Description:
The protein is mainly α. It is 85% helix and 0% strand.
Amino acid sequence: MKEYILLLPILFIFHDMEEIVGFEIFFKKNPEMFERFPKITAPYRNLKTPGFALAVYEEFIPFFGISLLAYFFPGKILDSIWLGLMLSLTAHFLVHIGQALYIRKYIPSLITSVICLPASIFILVKCFSKIEFTLWTALIILVTIPLMMINLKIAHQLMFKFNSWCEKN
């Protein structure tokens, strides 16, 4: 697995750079999104790039940290956590592709999702074939995914608080 471990943070940051660069611009050029999908887009109406970048940075920390730990200290627990993170990122790519199909429009994240999805599936297949599965490894993988969903929620809260703070100052 070691040859694939550091690809996780690389795929993450490659993908999220497209989001950071395009997020604010997308909503400025497509204000109709706020009317078409008000429940989903309302929180993003006044979001600025620095707040979004902060959320990406917060999300990057576990991807990078666990990848480094798994690279330098390989073992079942860290490998299992890493696989849970890789599965989470792969699901993230699928969500963005689904969003673009649903709204029938390019969204910032689509291009890198399409590029990264096959690579991440390849990596997952290779790594799953190399890990010894036990009940514990499966449990760790399955627990990591909802933990990353909670982390995503925390990143969004941080993003909105930072954006609000920036508007006041």
